TrEMBL record:
GO terms for biological process: DNA damage response. It comes from Streptomyces echinatus. The keyword ATP-binding does not apply. It comes from the Bacteria. This is YiaAB two helix domain-containing protein. InterPro entries: YiaA-like, YiaAB. Pfam families: YiaAB. One of its GO terms (cellular component) is plasma membrane.
Length: 95
């Protein structure tokens, strides 16, 4: 028998919490940079650095997810090949 792994999906509440958390963190950082007692060049640099960090984090998360999904696909293909070989094997067949 084949055990097909169930694809895990996030609940709507978890998704909403993640989006809200991200929005609060970005808003707090933006307000902190805006209210910082520094000249405009320093605030601009910090704003660009935060945006770069956020885009890099999204890219890293996507790469990790893609690598994990690719590993699962290879594992499924290998499992299917093994099951096919075992199904075709007859231990009582004379060679």
């Amino acid at each position: 028998m084949s055990d097909t792994p169930v694809k895990q999906q996030s609940t709507a509440a978890f998704y909403g919490q993640a989006v809200a958390s991200f929005a609060v963190a970005m808003a707090a950082t933006a307000i902190g940079i805006f209210r910082l007692d520094a000249n405009a060049w320093v605030r601009g640099f910090l704003a660009i650095a935060v945006l770069y960090l956020v885009t890099s984090a999204f890219t890293l998360a996507k790469v990790i997810r893609d690598r994990q999904e690719a590993g699962q696909i290879v594992s499924r293909v290998d499992q299917a090949r093994l099951e096919k070989l075992l199904a075709e094997h007859d231990p009582f067949e004379k060679v």
